[in-house]
Here is the input.
Amino acid sequence: MDSSLKHPKVNFDSGNTNQKIKMRSTKTKIIETDALIIGAGPVGLFAVFELGLLGIKAHVIDILNKPGGQCAELYPEKPIYDIPGFPMITGQNLCDNLMQQIKPFNPIFHFSELAETLIRTDNGSYEVETNGGLAFNAKIIVIAAGGGSFEPKRPPIKNIEHYEGHSVLYSIGKINDFAGKSIVIVGGGDSALDWTIALQKVAKNITLVHRRDKFTGAVSSVQKVMELRDKNKILFKIGQITEIIENQNKMTGVVFKSEEQKLKIDCDILMPFFGLTMNIGPLIDWGLSIDNKRIAVNTETFETNLPGVFAIGDINIYPGKLKLILSGFHESALMAHAAYKIIFPTDNLVFQYTTSSSSLQKKLGII
Here is the structure.
């Protein structure tokens, strides 16, 4: 084989002798960086900030075509109530603020790219290749991929896929797009409850359907939904949606079924929130310690079993883990300080506060 065309690369796999072969053109330009962050959701974006404060340059890749991860893709106008300092902020506004916050550090983004292979080089750095043919050489890897790639769980309703994207929706864009619509929301978790609360302000009417009268969402959200029901601002029915009713290839309603009755509910939009199917994809073959589709980490540093590879946010697992954005922010800070020792092994890191450190304020462009 002509060596100018292709040569084999081997995945680094800690302790796994069943190594896979990856072919890559030698003409592929390798992008050098201190840190490669996999995932451009809120936690990945904040990791740019924490690394930047310590003088660590980062490239960021994401399978989506824009920053923000699940917050921006699925729930851009969903209100978030547990971000410190913000009584309420939408997912999109949070991501916009994070993008503004990291501007001084000039991260380089690569969107619509899936990280496929991980190779440890002779000098201890890592080479990562993407499905789009990009290749990175990084001193550290930060996996901030949320739960991995995600897709909504489809309810068992005949021909539902024919209506997806227009009459059947699994995510919300702009709330005002639902003004004057009759909407049936199915589910008992946070998404179903939060969107019932938000959309009832603009919709013509809302019917919330759940298979039982107990919910898995936040207690405060359940209370708000029950208040809306008691004030006749929404309908709540215990049962399930079994069919879609159509007329001339257009959805006109759904069939609701419970133990006591079966009836038609007229609606323009059906929104089933049955959760998301998460898939960590090629990461499963990287030699990482995986527990229930999550990456195990050391909570002192958030380093994985692979030296120099960190996992932060919803993708990781450890005793007491809370899948909250604010937890991911905390993990980003500890990760960055551990990463500094790898990238600058001979330097002593002096802990500084942004409120009092002139050097940090210069990095942020404040002075």
User: Anything to note?
Assistant: The CA atoms of residues 71 and 317 lie 20 Å apart.
